[in-house]
Amino acid sequence: MDCQIKYSLLDTVLKEQKNHKNLITAVKINNVLRDVQTQVTPEDKVEFIDMTTEDGVQAYQRSILFIMMAAVNMLYPDKEVVVEHSVNNGIYCELLPKGDLTLEMVGKIQEKMFEFVSKAKDIKKCILPREDAVALFRESQQIAKSKLLESLKQDYVSLYYCAGYYDYLYGPMLYNTSLLDKFAIDFYEPGLIVRTPLISNPNVIPPKMKQKKLSMILSEADRWSYILKCNYVTNLNEYIHSNKISELIRISEALHEKKIAQIADHIVESIEDLRLILIAGPSSSGKTTFAQRLRIQLLVNGINPLIVMEQGGRLSTPKLCAASAREVESIKISRVGELKLDPGSFMAILPSRPMPINTMSIPPKVWIRCSYRRQYSMTASCGIVPSMVNTFCLSMSIWLRNKSFSCEKLLPAPSEAKG
Known about the structure:
Elements lengths: L6 E2 L1 H7 L7 E6 L2 E3 L4 E2 L5 E5 L3 H22 L4 E8 L2 E7 L6 H16 L5 E6 H10 L3 H8 L5 E7 L2 E3 L16 E5 L2 E5 L16 H17 L4 H9 L3 H25 L7 E4 L6 H14 L3 E6 L7 H6 L11 E3 L2 E3 L4 E7 L12 E8 L3 E8 L5 H14 L2 E8 L7
Antiparallel strand pairs: 1-4, 2-3, 2-5, 6-7, 7-12, 8-9, 9-10, 11-12, 13-17, 14-17, 15-16, 18-19, 18-20
């Protein structure tokens, strides 16, 4: 009979912490990420993960979210915490049912969390049969979580317990609340934002940062998931099992097309000011497809746009691997005038519409970024009559290619794109 002696890593971690400047939050056992409460054998290879790694920062963040859920459960037992997305230097969360969260409630939640920290409560891991864990979450009315556990293939699942609260979070967590003193909670209607240290500065809580447009897009995505009735992975699984996935795809496509139509309407309404529409994104992110769909919507509105694009900057897979040190996907890799852009990651749509009379006297500059047989590159500029911008761009690009130049970027100067 094979009888291996196992021991907990916790005592070892406590000793190892003395040699670490940053907090150890997890371990890798035989290259698999685990929490420090996991048992190991003398033959196992153990690597300590601290706050200078992405895995370490995520384990800390996950632990903070757990004690926040425990605090909400204690203060407002009829509420359920839903972790949504990263925004404004933190994690945006909502309390269900929505609508009645206040600044005072957020203050009480943070106060209770610091109370947990001061009392140094243990965060214990317990392993339960999957059926028992499902029953536990059903009893607490966490239906989505019970369905998620139900879909798992494994016979046993790991739950964490603290202050009378059980929960299942995907990934390792810390072992004691006394280690979780670096966090801040901000009221962000209709939810809240939890800020924890980032990998760039693992011992400091990051400041508030407003990301209004990103917040708006993420909120819109949340509304879309509500319309689709697909807020969780379990909902998606139900669509698949009930053979309704085609309907979900069609609704998603219709929503996307409606959004593109709204963008086109905005362009038409502001056509005298919007002369250049830029589409940016990494390789294969859908810039070409989006541009063509936007073009159709503009044509419906009587605008005949000219699409200017260049995909010459993409690299094949072997070259991409060889050039990884040069950050080929970074926007810092090349310049267009004074605007830094990634080759192959830029498109422009020039709406074909007469220029307003009051701008005809302003000669804009067109910046050209090109290379000669990939050996060297150059940037040039020239002033032209505004009404000739489109013709000049196309003519210059053909001339450059005939001269063995690869024209990577061709657009009006960023500072003078308007008009």
